[in-house]
Amino acid sequence: MIEIKNVSKSYIKGKKSVDSLTLDIKNGEIFGFLGPNGAGKTTTIRMITGILNMDEGDILIDGKSIKQNPLEAKKNFGFVPDSPDMFLKLKGIEYLTFMADVYDIPKDKRKEKIEELTKKFEIYNELNNEIQSYSHGMRQKIVICGALLSEPKNWILDEPMTGLDPKSSFDLKEMMREHAKAGKTVFFSTHVLEVAEKLCDRVGIINKGKLVFVGTFDEMKQKFKEEASLEKLFLEITEKSENN
Amino acid sequence: MKKVVELTKIFLKNSFADMNMKMGISSTKSKIVSNLIYAILLVYFAGIILFLSYNIIDGLKIIHQETTFIGMILFMVLGISVIQTIFSSINILYFTKDNEYLLPLPLKPYQIILARTNVMLIAEYVIIFLIGLIPLILYGILTGAGVLFYITMVLAVILMPILPILLISILVMLIMSFARLTKNKNKFQLIASLILIVIIIGVSLSTSNMKDDMSNEEMAQMVVQANGMIELVKGYFPTLDYLVEALTSNSITTAIIEILKTVGITILGFIIYMAIAQKIYFKGLVGNLFGGGAKKSNKKINQKEYTDGKLYKSYIGKEFKILIRNPVFLMQCLLPAILIPILMIVMVFIGINSEEAGMDQLIQELNNMQTNSFIIICIILGVLQFFTMFIYISITAISRDGENAVFIKYIPVPLYKQFIYKIMPNIIMNIVTIIITLGVAQYILHLPIITLILLFVVATIIGILQSILMLIVDLKRPKLNWDSEYAVVKQNFNLVFPVLLSMINIAIIIVLAIWLGNTNVYIGLIIFGILFGVLTLIANRYLKKNQYNLVEKII
Ligand SMILES: Nc1ncnc2c1ncn2[C@@H]1O[C@H](COP(=O)(O)OP(=O)(O)OP(=O)(O)O)[C@@H](O)[C@H]1O
Ligand SMILES: [Mg+2]
Known about the structure:
The complex is a heterodimer. Chain A is α/β, with parallel strands linked by helices. Chain A has helices at 41-48, 70-75, 92-102, 107-120, 136-148, 166-181, 193-199, 217-226, 228-243; strands at residues 2-9, 18-25, 30-34, 56-61, 64-65, 77-80, 154-158, 185-190, 202-207, 210-215. Chain A has a 6-stranded mixed β-sheet, sandwiched between helices. In chain A, strands 2-1-4-5 form a 4-stranded antiparallel β-sheet. Chain A is globular and about 55 Å long. Chain B is mainly α. Chain B folds into 2 domains: 1-17 and 66-125 and 146-293, no CATH class; 311-555, no CATH class. Chain B contains 24 helices and no strands. Chain B has helices at 2-17, 19-22, 28-62, 68-94, 99-102, 109-143, 147-159, 162-179, 185-210, 216-224, 228-234, 238-248, 252-290, 311-325, 327-354, 356-368, 374-388, 407-410, 415-445, 449-476, 485-489, 496-516, 521-545, 547-550. In chain B, 35% of the residues are buried. The model of chain B is unreliable at 17-25, 208-226 and 291-296 (pLDDT under 50). The chains are: A alpha/beta, B mainly alpha. Chain A binds chain B through residues 46, 49-53, 70-72, 74-75, 79, 81, 83, 85-87, 89-90, 93-94, 97-98, 100-107, 110-111, 114, 125, 127-130, 132-133, and chain B through 293-294, 296-301, 305-311, 313-315, 318, 321-322, 325-326, 403-404, 406-407, 409-414, 548, 552, 554-555. Residues 11-12, 17, 35, 37-43 of chain A line the site of adenosine-5'-triphosphate.
């Protein structure tokens, strides 16, 4: 469960990149965070994960404040950043065992978990190679594996679908569904409306730092029809998604 | 030719002109500050060079060997060109990002090679002018030389480095084009660069050993003979011989002839260089960019990989892996810790071999002298500061991770702990330098074991202090948006901070040396230990207390 409470952030004084954002993501839910480029999605995710300090408000992850109790809060989520170019000089297996050490995963369990995840994503056979030799999609996959090793209760992903082929994208969506079914939380940002439509229990739309809508996808479509300004935003997002 | 000039300009711009921008210095105010710091360092070094030169010339004058000085300086220019080229040619020729964009352009191979060579030359002239021209100008003034001397001097300093640079570059190209053929390219390149360095050290060692073959009589004659030194040195490079001749002769015709000879040989060398380079440079380059990649290794995962390590082990291991597997980081951050003291050892051995009589005398004198004295300890500590300032591990600890640096902020490991893991490689390499240096010192000075241990402890404390302070600098001014690793270790203003810190440490050591004078060694060492220990504790406390504020720049 992720509770975002009246959070604001400005990189430059006077220009709020996220403006009084309040949002609850419940257990067992897949939540899609939508918005055009520069809307504040990454900024929000950076604040949830403790990368960025917020100017106002607070964020709780399973009841632990990222502000007051960062270490405990960080144990409660797995994070997949928007750029998967991490630790390129490490071998896949070295990266994963390193992550296992970071999240304190016992020996017998880590082997099982690493094999399960990497086999699912079909990168098991690449684990002995440096991540540098991986394609963009494969890098994305190994980072996802790293984030899921500790079986976190909350799963936070920034633009996870970019660069994945249809099969991997399908697998990832399946994993998100499984994750949610087990009563855990998935929070991800995306441009692709289609993904949001098929996958998300609820979506939120952010534009210029302000949350303009929260609800189910059907509710969103309904609302778009009613409000002309939202319709325009909708077009903006869909246009972007076609470029992907 | 126009294209070559244009290319050179572009390469230079990429590595120098917009350096300020790349360093993240944007405002004019910080530009002024950074220029000021550069200027101060420049004056500082110029001052040291002047001071040393003055003393040497003065000493030589007494025994009427002042012309030896010219040979010494030119020899140093040569040596520095060689060392600089070893470190920079691999990077400039092979590991720059723009190679990727360059290859598809309609440029002739020789144009690119020429431009790259120009960049290497220009980059090296900065230091060479500092080390070559300043002492020679002083020499000119002290010996009352005429205009001819100054003109010849400038020409000599310009001409001297060219041949060694070409020679080393060819060696590098040969190794790189050979690397293309091997399966595990990355590892080979690493090993090859190491071998190259070892070969060069070996050659200089063996050439100095050759002098052992000289009969004692010859040797004695040499030492006695005025300017005997130059004769020894000349054998290495023919142009050195000509240039020394040009600078020491009083006749215009001799000077002109010798300079012309040098120009001729340099041009000849250049033609050979271009011929070889055109054949092999691009092959190696293309191989380097697109060939092979990491070797496809065994698919079966070694079961050992799964063992759960302690976090500190795998974290520090990760840092080391990234440092070692990245050729640029390896060359600029890790290797200097080993190479610089080793070069020193080589120099000591050369000294012993070439001037046996002098060395014997020196050792005898040292034996008579009280080596276990506070002043000697201060000198060793000061020398160590010079060696360790080239270890760029801590100062790039955050920047090396680039955009991935945020990683430290979202994993559930206390930041302070991660800071300590990140500086451990710096501390470890510092200790390596200290051990090598103390080993050599012990060989010459035969210090009591307690002194040695205390010295080791004090040096290590200073190393820890340096590591912590440099990490704080990198945290406060991280350079995360780089596109090639080279930018982190070269076009990074932060790199003046290790130099500054070493200068400050040396100043502290000098002040204490003067102030405490003839104190007992042990008391002196304990005072050092306490002083730097307290400073280290303060720095450590600052790091721990401000761990959350310090990472604010990392996004
Ligand atoms: N490091 C930064 N410094 C200054 N401003 C920033 C920084 N990062 C983001 N911004 C600004 O904050 C706003 C929100 O950016 P953010 O990266 O959160 O957008 P986003 O929704 O993730 O966009 P995208 O779809 O392109 O990923 C933008 O106006 C951007 O210019
Ligand atoms: Mg984003």
